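Researcher: Please predict.
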Amino acid sequence: MKISIGIDLHKSQFTTCMLSEDRTVREPGMYPTTELGYREFLKRVAFYEQEGYEVVAAVESTGNRARIAEYPAIFGTNCCKQRLG
């Protein structure tokens, strides 16, 4: 089972959409771009991982992706180092 997560990152909030393999929207969400907001989002991700889902995510951003890189303790040190296009 797989959950695909799209993340649209903005300056003060980020919007997420979790889709199951059958393309059903499982859980749309909006979170503040703060440590608390990131932690709350990752709790939801952890729930799906604990349920046995493979979780994949993509971040859409036009320059503010460094905001989540400010939290290496939450996202890890390799977060946001790859740039596409």
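Model: Residues 17 and 34 are 18 Å apart (CA to CA).
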